[in-house]
Amino acid sequence: MRRLLKRHLPDHESLAANRWLAPFGSTLFHPRLWHLNRHSAAGAVAVGLFCGLIPGPFQMLGAAVCCLLFRVNLPLALLTTLYTNPFTIVPLYILAFTIGEWILGNGSGLFTEPPEWGQAGLWAWLEALAQWMAGLGRPLILGLIVLAFSLSLTGYLLTRIAWRAYLIHHWNKRRSRPT
What we know:
By secondary structure, this protein is mainly alpha-helical. It has 8 helices and no strands.
């Protein structure tokens, strides 16, 4: 499993040669951020899944900061954040909003439509849009946190289980080989 992941992830020597990353060498090139084992891989998947729901272009920055804090594999965490993309982000945010509304106990659990332009004028429409966005705020933020934690925990556990199954398979295969 480690060889498979190492084949597709960049090594820290090639990144250390990068002139943009050189100033962060003492922190960014800590050996634990680049070591790949079952603990660092599971932690990296959890960090990547959690930070993948951060809005905007801050997903990888958040994942990098979390990797520095938790000392898990940096490239794998950055790669894992890519599960959110233009095709998946809208359904994930709608799911997060639905979860947030369900937890708060308000609303029907259905995503409400934004206000129509109508005949009221620009200022009235902007005021209605601001109220609509404020109504989304609490359920969306709570839903994003709950969804991020649940995805993170699921990813961590599945990575640990998959790594363990892979090891058991190879132990059994090695044991069954004729000596």
